[in-house]
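Example 3.
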Amino acid sequence: MVKNDNGQLYTIEGFAAGLIMVITAYLVVNATSVYTAGDTHINDMQLEALGSDALRMMDIPINATESDNRHSDLRMIIENSEYDIFKTKFLDYTNESGSGPGHDIQFNASYSCRDSSDNIQSVQMVNSRNLTGGEHAVRSTKWVIVDKECPGAGPSLRERAVLVEVLLWRD
Amino acid sequence: MTDDSGTLSIDFIAGFTIFLLAFIWVLSMVPGLLVNLQGYTIDYDAVAYRTGVILVEDPGWPASPPWESQQNFSVTRFGLAVSRDTPNILSQEKVDRFFSNTSVYGAFVYPDDYHQRVIFGDYPYRFNVSLLDVENNQLRSVGDVVPEGYGYIRRVVKIKGLSNATIDAPLYKNPDNNVTTHEFSILVNNSGLKEQKNPAYEIDPARDQIMVNITDLRLTISNQTQAPSVNITLTNINVYKLDGGILSLVRTFNTPYIDENSSTTQPPVEVKNNVSLKFSPAFFDILNAGSSPIFINLSFNLNNGGSSYYSQFLNNTWSSPFDYDYDTPEVTQPRLRDAMVEVAVW
């Protein structure tokens, strides 16, 4: 048995010191994972920006003075329920490609408005493919001023805002 | 053994061994933690996104006078938007300057000029910025050929087209036959043009080129059997500014396009049938007109066989100037057309 125990570590101290260092090292190393768990969110961001751009461009009249073009495409589509035109134009915008890679983007579009009872009514517009639930979709929205009654409400006496919502995903 | 200084106990060795084993295990996890980071993709995608935002949502700097009307060294930041209130609406003049390699102010050189003004950062990124004008099916780009593995963003935009006026001369001839010198006045009413509050549709001569085409001049001559032999001379184009009720001559315009010529000719010049005037933003910028009305007066002389010829002609001195505004049917208003901006960074 050793009588002089100066400079020695006891078992419990060794365990404690080791544990503290291990936990510290693990926390430090593990902290890097907060940056990202891959680049999935970059693709989401790109898709969301594209959807927002497409809706914004569809809601800008091409000319301020010509009576035929005074209202935006998106407004006319909703007012006249011309949802096939929405599908064509939206896909034209999202799948158009210049020098970059090709795209195969699908979407599901609807809009929401308030009826006379102040309940929110949702109107399905059109989709390019049915949602199965397995898609990794992102959402883009745009408020649009239209002159059209909301389902369940009486005839429209003035213009109202509806929220157009598009779910986008890549095939 | 009585002196055991410097020896290690079995307890310490056990504890230290456990620590080392655990530490090695944690270190071995590090590559696994980092495998999904793919730092280059995140970095390049972020730079591409930032560049895309600057290009399509910012008008650039300096803002007034705009950077597209400045010498290269005065340009701090590129931005193609018409104004900060109109994201995704691009100015034709800014687009032309950004992609042009024949500007009167000097072309921008890839990559340095573009890197300093739109890509930013210390890292020597390579990049490619392209713009697809969907309606005109025109693809313009600046930068390198895109390799494998790059950051990318795509923005859907519209380009604000230029306004122009096509004037059918016979509609603006004077009723009096007894005249040899004729004047036709075009009014650019700056305060009236500012009534359009949305910059996306505004006619702004200090920002966008405006063009006036005058056609069928010879058809204004009263006697159409003599018309082919009449010499029509555009003697000068004077520009006046109305400021505080005082009309003053501020400059002359010396670069009209005559008939089908692709280059300009300084007056006095003989005209067969058509005159085109292209006013660059720099032209109006120099006038510093603010909201003062600008009058552009074209003077014509008619003669036949060496002597003055009396006839009706393009002349609105008896009525009112041709108003280049939103209500005149001959003026084609600015129109937005679809386009796509793509940015690739590596």
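Chain A touches chain B through 52 residues (CB under 8 Å). Chain A has a mean pLDDT of 82.
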